[in-house]
Amino acid sequence: MRPTRLFAGCLLILTRLAVCLMFASTATADFRKIVLATNLLEPIQLSIARDGRVFLAERHGEIKVYNPRDGKLAEVGQLNVFTGPEDGLLGLALDPGFLTNHWIYTFHSTPGVLENRVSRYTVERERLDTNSQKILLRMPTLLKKPNHSGGGLYFDAAGNLYASTGDYTFINDSQGYSPLDERPGQEVHDSQRTAANSNDPRGKILRIHPEPNGSYTIPKGNLFPPGTAQTLPEIYIMGCRNPFRFTVDAKTGWVYWGDVGPDALQMDPVRGPAGFDEFNRAKEAGNFGWPYFAADNRPYVKYNFATKESGAPFDPNRPVNDSPNNTGIRELPPAQPALIWYPPGPSSRFPEMGSGARSAMAGPVYHFDRNLKSGRKLPESLDGAWFIFEWERGWIKSVRFDDQGKIAGIRPFMADTKFKRPISLDVGPDGALYLIEWGTAWYNNKDSQLVRLEYVP
Staple 198 to which of 56, 231, 425, 429, CB 3.0 to 4.6 Å? Predict the structure, then answer.
């Protein structure tokens, strides 16, 4: 063998060995959880300024800020909100230019008015000016027991604002299957009126571009071009049940989200598939199927709630919304399958998900910055990893992809740590993860907290 070939072969082996050793050391290296703030009341979403300040929204309307300079938590302001079962102050996002324009966006309900709003406020010297409100979006809510509200907010690298909305549909009379009740007076049991309705903002991920005067424009590439009859141009993703937490990859612009699914424990040939939670990825605008499909496009069956008779399964290539509660187009875009799906019990397709109660939530895609001087940034071995987490099961995992974008592996993150219902996760400017733990109970927890998850080299 010629020396140059021998050298090249040895170099390749050493390179591969170095990569393996780096991954192995990272997989077993220490990450630590640092508690930054406690005494929180139902904290629900965080947004991190480029100077390291962490702003928090609490469901009962209070906005707080954690300042890393002094390690203190301070009140920013209080919104007057309606706090039904799943409404309140649900989402928070800082404008990309927050350090200069001081704009903050909220997703919140309004007492006395049956709607959720996406509004812009001004924060001056860490005080919220409630008189500065500019209302961008309005979403109808329900008079009694609002549920599946969504409420997440997130900006992409182009300054577009995304807002997630739930389908606002009760599933009580659907035995855990798809709520398709078209009987008069049962409108709130028919998700075809919202998630499958191209003319309704609910059951969607909306995308707009906020303008300085408090209005917004429609970015190119949304699902329905402006002017399309019986559609809303703000819709980017439709066919969602409750896309509570989502993210936008700063490099690719792809949208990732978790969608909380229904509760049927097994497939029923006269109704459809068992309940699945989903993790989804959209490289472009699309329809993701609810309430006609679940998981990898498993179809529900057209079901008559009056006669208890079943019709044909829905067709994912040509979904049709014939509900009398539909105000949008009849023929919908083809349904897109989920990226990851899992039932209440163990998953044969994705055993890494475990089993038990489900509540899928999507965290950030991490991009390693070798020029960032930070002693706690996540390691290079996690470059390109997408962090997913589970509110009910209390874990965080990293999803890795191959060069074609297919899943290459799903691994536990801080596997020995049981998180207390994680509800909002993002990467800070220091390259560490910041997490809100909702707490061990459903409401009024005494153990809610803001934490930082950092790498210990």
Answer: 231
Q: What is the three-class DSSP state of 309? A: strand
Give yes or no: residues 59 and 155 share one domain.
no
Domain end position, chosen among 337, 365, 393: 365
**321 vs 195, 260, 294, 370, CA distance in Å?**
10, 22, 16, 50
Q: Which of 115, 48, 104 is nearest to 77 (CA)?
A: 104
The angle subtended at Cα 181 by Cα 175 and Cα 186, nearest 5°, is 110
pLDDT digits (tens, 9 = 90+) for 22-33: 333 344 358 999
pTM, two decimals, is 0.93
SS3 302: strand
Residues 134 and 177 placed together within one structural domain of the fold: no
Structural domain including 235 reads 148-365
Conformation bin of residue 239: beta by default, left when phi > 0, alpha when psi is -120 to 50? left
Decide if 380 is inside a domain. no
What DSSP state is assigned to residue 335? Answer: B
Q: Return the closest-CA partner of residue 38 out of 386, 346, 447.
A: 447
346 and 246 in a common domain:
yes
Say if residues 198 and 238 touch (Cβ distance below 8 Å): yes
Whether residue 355 sits in one domain with residue 263: yes
**Within-domain flag for 166:** yes
Q: What is the pLDDT of residues 432-453, one digit of tens each?
A: 999 999 999 888 899 999 999 9
